[in-house]
């Protein structure tokens, strides 16, 4: 696990790691909380259903960030985006579903999650040349 300091109110570091299948509801909760506006209106960009996250939760591509025991944010990191950019070229990572819980906004957590995704992309690039299966993910150690 790579922990990055994110400046939580209690001094806790933001720990980011692949979400386990048993954490699906936690990740979905973060995403749904993010798309609900303060007035309670559902956001229109993502909606409230995330079949891609449900599909990918067991592949190691869905990451969950926590401050201590508290879920703080999440993202999906893929090595290919067939519909837009094509297959895995061994060089790029595709960041999807980046979300930070609104109650934690303004603490730099989104920036920290992006930094984690960047570090994972660097590991992916260093791990080998050439295309890979989009289901493989680098070790987060």
What is the strand content?
Answer: 15-25%
Q: What spatial form do the alpha-carbon principal axes imply? A: globular
Which architecture per CATH? 3-Layer(aba) Sandwich
Query: CATH homologous superfamily?
Result: Gcn5-related N-acetyltransferase (GNAT)
| Unreliable sequence segments | 1-8, 129-141
What is the CA–CA distance across the termini?
5 Å
Radius of gyration based on Cα positions: 15 Å
CATH class: Alpha Beta
The pLDDT mean sits at 80
Number of helices: 3
The CATH topology is given as Aminopeptidase
Give structural notes.
The chain is an alpha+beta fold and 141 residues long. It has one domain (2-127): Aminopeptidase (3-Layer(aba) Sandwich). It is 26% helix and 21% strand. It contains 3 helices and 5 strands. The protein has helices at 24-35, 51-56, 109-127; strands spanning 2-4, 14-18, 62-67, 70-78, 94-100. Strands 1-2-3-4-5 form a 5-stranded antiparallel beta sheet, sandwiched between helices. The longest helix is centred in the C-terminal third of the chain and has 19 residues, at 109-127. The N and C termini lie close together (5 Å).
């Amino acid at each position: 696990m790579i922990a990055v300091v994110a400046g939580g109110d209690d001094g806790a570091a933001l720990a980011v790691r692949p979400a386990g299948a048993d954490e699906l509801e936690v990740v979905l909760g973060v995403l749904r909380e993010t798309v609900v506006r303060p007035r309670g209106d559902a956001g229109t960009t993502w909606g409230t259903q995330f079949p891609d996250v449900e599909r990918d939760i067991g592949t190691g591509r869905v990451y969950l960030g926590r401050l201590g025991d508290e879920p703080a944010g999440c993202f999906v990191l893929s090595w290919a985006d067939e519909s837009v950019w094509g297959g895995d070229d061994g060089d790029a990572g595709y960041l999807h579903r980046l979300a930070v819980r609104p109650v934690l906004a303004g603490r730099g957590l989104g920036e920290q999650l992006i930094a984690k995704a960047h570090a994972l992309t660097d590991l992916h690039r260093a791990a080998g040349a050439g295309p890979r299966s989009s289901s493989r993910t680098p070790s987060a150690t």
